[in-house]
Amino acid sequence: MKYYPKITKLAVGFALSLILLFSAYTAWCSTRPMPESPAENSAWLVYWDMPKDPNKLPSKKYDSISYFAAYFSDEDQLTLPDDFDSAGLLNNDIPRRYLTIVNDVVSHNKNSLKSITLVKRTLDGNMKKIIYADKIIALAQKNGFNGIDLDYEQIFKDKYTAEEYIHFIKILYDKAYAQNIKLRVILEPSVKFAAYNFPRGPQYVVMMYNLYGLHSGPGPKADFAFIEQTSNSMKALPGPVGAAFSAGGCLWGSNGEKRFISSDQAEMLAQKHQINTKRDEKSGALFFSYKDESINYTVWFADKKTIAEWSKKAGEMGINAISLWRLGDDE
User: Fold this and answer.
1) Residue 40: what pLDDT?
2) Which residues contact 57 (CB under 8 A, 6 or more apart)?
3) What is the pLDDT of residue 234?
4) Hey, which of 141-145, 316-320, 325-329 has the most confident mean pLDDT?
5) Alpha-carbon separation of residue 56 from 52, 86, 294 (angstroms)
6) Smallest Cα–Cα separation from 205: which of 153, 162, 163, 143?
7) CA-to-CA distance for 217 and 298, rounded, in angstroms?
8) Helix (H) or strand (E) holding 307
9) Number of helices and strands (H, E) in the chain?
10) Integer-rounded Cα radius of gyration of the chain
11) What's the average model confidence in pLDDT over 41-69?
12) Model-level pTM?
């Protein structure tokens, strides 16, 4: 019994030490510098908007272009659309051409977008990870790409799948690096970056959009507070890092209709209904409302000025590599 006071003092001292260490760690995290983020401008171009004439590619405006094209068949085979034409990629001055790989299953019977089960099947065991890494690299090289975008979404809803995916990133990076192929990993802002041991080497690009959208009521795809919060969480990534912003916006109707629209389409709607757009101070985005056949509509969208303001805010946070989703009507 006489030793209890000493044990109690030791326990209290140990607990206080843990609290101090945790406080020091928290303070260090808040002041941790942003990982490397070289200044560069990139953009995605979806295959259905790809110009047939390579001279029409916006090569002078961007340091790299990511071609949103590769998905999986219902037999788990990597594939490109039948009408995808990569001939023009080899005859232009774009420094870096990325092939974007998504975890979508597209078949004649049924499509499954952002499939976690696909990832579980294709990354089940080290041998499958190696096989699919080789397949991705071969597909990129065959079609004239010198970069790969790994854009697997919803993965981090399942911790086991997330850990397997991170292991796959390391394998793919090592193999791509040996072939002088750049790797970018596209991440959702909801991912708890500090909870995972992401491998050093790839560039990690975080999607700073869909703050509001089809999943919510009216609002901007991003605002300045969201950009700041997401940027701070990205300090846990090993770098280099980048931010992705989305042009255009969304329309919401009182009848339940929700759909994405381009900035050009939004401006045409405003002109058609003779409505003046307003710019939101907290986001830099434009918005307006109108009524058509007894249905009330609200539109929020980003124009070029909005993208510039979002990019400036990211730069203030230490993120200078900016990607745009996507080229097309908003280009």
Assistant:
1) 95
2) 45, 51, 65, 88, 92, 94
3) 98
4) 316-320
5) 8, 14, 42
6) 153
7) 9
8) helix 304-316
9) 7, 14
10) 23
11) 77
12) 0.88
